[in-house]
Specification:
Shape: globular
Structural class: alpha+beta
Number of helices: 27
Strand content: 15-25%
Radius of gyration: 28 Å
Strand order of the largest sheet: 6-5-9-3-2-12-15-14
Helix content: 25-40%
Largest sheet: 8 strands, mixed
Distance between the termini: 8 Å
Bound molecules: phenylalanine, zinc ion
Oligomer: single chain
Length: 881
């Protein structure tokens, strides 16, 4: 590590603030290049703080204009002001009022943190540490205050003025072209939940009546012209509000709920109290521009941000180490919501795919960290798959171990006891411990230990003794700064499937506690004995993916294919087929690497065929079963000396082989899945499209599809984005005749719709051919592309670096060098997005030696650059450690 690296923040150093800020009154006078912010803070020293302790407030690139204490301007020797810090000495003993005036330049704010402009609209982003870019403050989540915000702007520039909480007052300022609005939020909140918006926006409105009979005004604000694309988001919002009342007993607590969609946003969306600000990608949807996946994403993110109102806002985090307390829990809640809105197994499979493709690699590489980290250099880099997705898995496991009743009782206790507080993971777990009477000390290791545990299961059946024995062993791998690990509590949902395909019931079990169908694995090794087992069963293990672990079982391919066809848990049917496909792909990769011919086991082909034609199964589920494990799944499974080119080749070849073997069945089902009538985004209709499109992908890559006619016809006939983008993907990724014409037609059609054009960028960036890098470079000059817009950067460059493994990791290192260059350039304007791009290097150590050396060189080049942001510095340092 470089000597100039600033000291990290450590969990063990937490101590409460010396001062409390009870109320915040802001007066914000907006102007593009010189916005005036006056903050009036009512402050008192806490009893615990020694007299004479100075008040030290956080700042970031701030320009102080004036400062007054209890109405008296402060003399130069009474304070020290720097852009990142304000220290005030000589304070009264009792409460006092501090008035701070700062001047901001929203137009120049390219970091998209603090107050900035997106397409002319003024908006804010304060999580995690953006409020300190607006005014000096105790910018930490345990400083809770009641906010009143007055916003003033030129009426013609910004007819809409929005703040947190409820509207109080609004009007014109006589004799000027300006107007104002005052908002008051009665719920004490940390500064990261502050927001304001001002702009010329269109509004879509609706209403909601809460379970306790209160009327809430719902508004979605978008750029003019996008009013027609808000219906799905509004519908999702109303369903979320109802669901949280019904499932968690949580009722909304203000008179209005506002959502604003902006096109320049670093993340997905933000749960600011009463004023959610969204990346427009997670609001706008029309059949012509949004895919089924987009619709599902909007539903999930709208719900997620709404659910934060209780898990995050009413109960917030004591410090940023507790981030999973709001994020893991809220992801769990949005996953449950989507499961209830759609098919539960389909949702679970989608979530597990995401977990395995994003979180497992993170946990296996140099950026691995616990769900609750103990140390950070840059908190922005901890909005990770581990905190969010693994954090949600931990809550899910808690529910599995406690059962639904005790889980709900624990949640109720948490809401009761901690409402209005900034709290910790310990306090959360204590509620479940009390509600269930279970000791959760060992379980809490899930928050402390990084790395994906491995569960190894070996089984044997003794017919004479009618006994089935499973030996279950767990191990947790070493991760950065955590070499020795303790055994964890792992919920292992299991059932024994008899030869006739039914679950064996009424068995007696010894060797581990079992509640319902869940075994509680706690020791390094368990010998679990089932008695009175009438025939050799096949164990169905880790049902519903009951824990985020690697499962290594001694089941044969034949056993797995039996489960794929017969398991009563749909998730495990999918998982079993994936396991067989994964081992086939690994064999194929070895063959590709040593230039041997690639063959596919006919039994696997047969299993795929049976699945395609099984009309008793939900089409959405069949579509998921047919999707081969991805390239990153393979890389993860192979683990070291990874050759992404060989993986890509093998996977393409296996797909083509399956397509050729099953062409007839595929075509028949493809045709049967054609949906007449108008587009509908519901789960059933989208499932049919998903199955049809996955079949098109096979057929397009098979021999019969090489003339391109099927994919072209699919493209031409598409009346919605799901089908159009799927067809374009096949045409481009299989390089079929007509792909250039289709690209041109798509670009033409969607030239004016940036979110739609993003798909066009992504499809080209992820084409696995030797010219992909050149294409990406060329497209950065396309008029629809902009390095200043995070969505464009992710759609083109992010997609290349994470979604085109063979080309990003090409052997000559050109992909690495390019990414390094982009990271360095972008770091100067938007460090957060630059750091996220840089984390595409996270699996570099698993590559084969030649590629490893090239990746390391690129990383070292970035690391050796002076003037890096803390964000990028942190990622490259950890990658290299
Ligand atoms: N808290 C936001 C969410 O739900 C994510 C976010 C983090 C947004 C930081 C902006 C900045 O999930
Ligand atoms: Zn969140």
């Amino acid at each position: 590590m470089r000597p100039d690296t600033p000291a990290p923040v450590r969990l063990e150093d937490y101590r409460p603030t010396d001062f409390a800020i009870d109320t915040v009154s802001l007066d914000i006078r907006l102007a593009p290049k010189a916005t005036q912010v006056r903050a009036r803070l009512a402050i008192r020293r806490r009893d615990t703080a020694a007299q004479g302790t100075p008040l030290v407030l956080d700042g970031d690139e701030l320009d102080l204009v004036s400062l007054a204490l209890d109405g008296r301007p402060l003399a130069a020797d009474e304070y020290t002001a720097a852009p990142d810090r304000l220290e005030i000495r000589a304070l009264p003993e009792g409460p006092f009022v501090l008035e701070i005036e700062t001047r901001l330049d929203p137009d120049a704010n390219t970091k998209l943190m603090g107050l900035y402009r997106s397409s002319g609209t003024y908006c804010t982003q304060c999580e995690a540490e953006g409020f300190r870019r607006i005014t000096y403050f105790l910018d930490r989540p345990d400083c809770l205050s009641v906010y009143t915000t007055r916003i003033e702007a030129r009426e013609s520039d910004a007819p809409v003025l929005l703040g947190n909480g409820n509207p109080v007052e609004a009007g014109r300022i006589e004799g000027t072209d300006r107007h104002y609005a005052v908002w008051h939020d009665p719920h004490p909140k940390p500064a990261y939940l502050f927001a304001m918006v001002a702009g010329d926006l269109a509004r879509v409105s609706d209403r909601f009546t809460t379970a306790d009979g209160r009327d809430v005004a719902l508004n979605i604000y978008v750029e003019h012209g996008n009013e027609g694309a808000c219906d799905w988001a509004m519908d999702s919002l109303k369903r979320s509000m109802r669901w949280d009342e019904e499932v968690f007993g949580r009722i909304y607590d203000l008179e209005v709920f506002n959502i604003v969609a902006v096109s320049d946003f670093n993340m997905g969306a933000m749960e600011n109290k009463g004023l959610n600000i969204f990346n427009d990608k997670y609001v706008l949807a029309s059949p012509d521009t949004a895919t089924d996946q987009d619709y599902a994403g909007i539903e999930a993110v709208i719900a997620h941000e709404y659910f934060h109102n209780w898990t995050g806002n009413r109960i917030t985090c004591r410090d940023w180490f507790q981030l999973c307390l709001k994020e893991g829990l809220t992801v769990f809640r949005d996953q449950e919501f989507s499961s209830d809105m759609r098919s539960r197994p389909v949702k679970r499979i989608a979530d597990v795919r995401l977990l395995k493709s994003h979180q497992f690699p993170e946990d296996a590489g140099p950026l691995a960290h616990p769900v609750r980290p103990r140390l950070y250099h840059e908190i922005n880099n901890f909005y990770t798959a581990t905190v969010y997705e693994k954090g949600a898995e931990v809550v899910r496991m808690l529910k599995a171990l406690l059962g639904p009743e005790d889980f709900r009782a624990g949640m109720d206790l948490f809401f009761d006891r901690h409402d209005g507080e900034a709290t910790t993971v310990e306090a959360f777990l204590a509620c479940f411990q009390e509600a269930s009477g279970r000791d959760l000390a060992q379980f809490s290791l899930w928050y402390e230990q990084a790395g994906t545990p491995t569960l190894t299961v070996d089984s044997k059946y003794e017919p004479e003794a009618r006994r089935f024995t499973m030996t279950v062993r767990q191990s947790v791998p070493p991760t950065p700064k955590q070499s020795a690990k303790k055994p964890m509590t792992i919920p292992l949902k299991a059932a024994l499937i008899g030869p006739d395909g039914t679950e064996m019931t009424g068995l007696s079990v010894a060797g581990a506690e079992m509640t319902g169908d869940t075994l509680h694995i706690r020791n390094p090794s368990h010998m679990i004995v089932f008695s009175d087992v009438p025939a050799r069963p096949v164990p169905s293990l880790l049902r519903e993916f009951s824990a985020p672990v690697h499962l290594k079982s001694d089941l044969s391919d034949a056993d797995l294919l039996f489960l794929a066809a017969r398991d009563t848990d749909p998730f495990n049917r999918w998982q079993a087929l994936q396991s067989v496909a994964l081992s086939a792909l690994i064999k194929a990769t070895q063959a590709a690497a040593s230039q041997r011919p690639i063959t596919v086991d006919p039994a696997l082909v047969e299993a795929f065929g049976a699945n395609i034609a099984d009309d008793s199964l939900d089409p959405a589920f069949r579509a998921l079963c047919l999707q081969l494990p991805g390239e990153t799944d393979l890389a993860r499974e192979i683990g070291k000396d990874v050759d992404p080119e060989a993986i890509c080749q093998a996977r393409r070849q296996v797909r083509a082989t399956i397509a050729d073997a099953l062409a007839e069945t595929m075509l028949a089902t493809y045709t049967a899945m054609t949906s007449p009538g108008p587009f509908s985004p519901d789960a059933a209709a989208s499932g049919r499209r998903a199955l049809r499109n996955v079949l098109l992908e096979y057929l397009g890559h098979g021999t019969g599809g090489q003339d391109g006619t099927l994919a072209q016809a699919h493209f031409d006939a598409a009346d919605n984005m799901t089908d159009r983008a799927a067809a374009l993907g096949v045409l481009v990724h299989a390089r079929l005749p007509g792909h250039e014409e289709a690209l041109a037609a798509f670009a033409d059609r969607h030239a004016g719709t940036p979110l739609a054009l993003d798909k066009w960028f992504t499809i080209q960036a992820t084409a696995p051919f030797g010219d992909a890098l050149e294409t990406v470079k060329r497209l950065t000059a396309h008029p629809g592309f902009s390095m200043g817009n995070p969505n464009r950067v992710r759609a083109l460059i992010g997609a290349f670096a994470t979604g085109n493994q063979s080309q990003f990791n090409q052997a000559d290192g050109a992909g690495f060098d390019y990414l390094a260059e982009v990271v360095l350039g972008l770091d100067k304007t938007n460090p957060q997005v630059a750091a996220r791009l840089a984390s595409a290097f996270r699996s570099w150590r698993a590559l084969e030696p030649e590629r490893q050396a090239r990746a390391e060189a690129a990383l070292r080049h970035v690391a050796a650059t002076g003037e890096l942001s803390p964000d990028v510095r942190d990622i490259v340092d950890r990658c290299l450690q």
